[in-house]
């Protein structure tokens, strides 16, 4: 790492791997923001968000077609999660949105976080699977109360959540699973008139990346503990021009020699209601490096985006001007990043070191 290149990585576009299928009602409003994983068959799969008319989202499964070591397209294999629970549906809205999946070897499971678009708005939930096809819901996430924050994190909508692939040491010294998340401080989105409220010690009211922990021993005793998060810490907030409005996490953190590489998104423009499909924003991809031993500590970050909306597919769609990274996978020794394009299609970019 150098002052000129604090994060020694770059992203290079490879192409578009998935577009809405003509005549497929589940994809009428786009395919986007996929999770990913390797199945028991060794094949690489995407779990795309499929959006039907009325902004109703489901999670699909699609095998990635690879040619000459490069992801080029997908073969659809159906829907694996849809809003069929009461807390995933509201009056006039429903959705299981923006899945992120992490293979956690210590559990022998794929762990999915997703957004349940239910009666009170977007809420993070957790599900687990052995094969990417059959998912067991563990329910909506609960945040254990932490008195020094002077705030109940359960009050807030929360998105952009993703687990680390390996156990880490929590602030209290216990071996734990760690998860990044992005609380949304505007309580007025839930109860009009309440306005923006932030925890004690938080001076910047813009939406930022936080980290919480789950004791590994508790999860081994009861998988349901994966949905009970504790020891909450601020990680990073908006700092550079491409992050002026807010930032949020992306794919599962990738272990690198310097620590943990976290691809994130930074947002500029004007945010409408959290329930709206935004039209006046710009989403670009940047990167953080978190300390290997203490992943709540940022040791480097990109002052400019690694990938910003420049192509027609990234600039024109359901939500224009969006590059939204959500998955990283290794193919033949190289890492590829899958990302949402203007909330309409799925692109792929090559992740490479620059040193």
UniProtKB/TrEMBL annotation:
Designated name of the protein: Glycosidase
UniProt keyword list: Glycosidase, Glycosyltransferase, Hydrolase, Transferase
InterPro entries: Glyco_hydro_beta-prop_sf, Mannoside_phosphorylase
Record organism: Microbacterium testaceum
GO molecular-function terms, A-Z: glycosyltransferase activity; hydrolase activity, acting on glycosyl bonds
Family the UniProt entry places it in: Belongs to the glycosyl hydrolase 130 family.
């Amino acid at each position: 790492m150098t002052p000129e290149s604090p994060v020694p990585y770059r992203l290079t576009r490879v192409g578009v791997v998935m577009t809405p299928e003509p005549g497929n009602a589940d994809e009428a409003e786009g395919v986007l923001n996929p999770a990913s994983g390797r199945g028991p068959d060794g094949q690489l799969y995407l779990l795309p968000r499929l959006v039907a008319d009325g902004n109703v989202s489901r999670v699909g499964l699609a095998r990635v077609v690879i040619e000459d070591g490069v992801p080029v397209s997908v073969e659809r294999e159906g829907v694996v999660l849809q809003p069929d629970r009461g807390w995933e549906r509201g009056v006039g809205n429903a959705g299981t949105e923006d899945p992120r999946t992490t293979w956690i070897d210590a559990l022998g499971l794929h762990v999915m976080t997703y957004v349940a678009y239910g009666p009170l708005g977007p809420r993070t939930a957790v599900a687990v699977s052995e094969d990417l096809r059959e998912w067991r819901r563990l329910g909506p996430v609960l945040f254990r109360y932490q008195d020094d924050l002077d705030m109940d994190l359960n009050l807030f909508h929360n998105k952009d959540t993703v687990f680390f692939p390996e156990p880490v040491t929590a602030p209290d010294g216990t071996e734990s699973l760690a998860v990044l998340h992005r609380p949304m401080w505007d309580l007025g989105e839930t109860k009009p008139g309440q306005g923006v409220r932030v925890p004690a010690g938080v001076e910047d009211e813009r939406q930022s990346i936080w980290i919480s922990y789950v004791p590994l021993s508790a999860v081994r005793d009861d998988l349901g503990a994966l949905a009970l998060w504790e020891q909450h810490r601020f990680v990073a907030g908006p700092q550079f021009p491409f992050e002026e409005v807010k930032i949020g996490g992306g794919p599962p953190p990738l272990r690198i020699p310097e620590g943990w590489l976290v691809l994130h998104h930074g947002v500029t423009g004007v945010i409408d209601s959290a329930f709206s499909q935004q039209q006046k924003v710009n989403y670009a991809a940047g990167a953080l490096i978190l300390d290997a031993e203490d992943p709540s500590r940022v040791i480097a970050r990109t002052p400019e985006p690694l990938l910003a909306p420049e192509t027609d597919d990234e600039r024109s769609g359901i939500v224009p001007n969006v590059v939204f990274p959500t998955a990283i996978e290794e193919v033949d020794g190289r890492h590829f990043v899958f990302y949402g394009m203007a909330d309409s299609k799925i692109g792929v970019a090559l992740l490479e070191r620059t040193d």
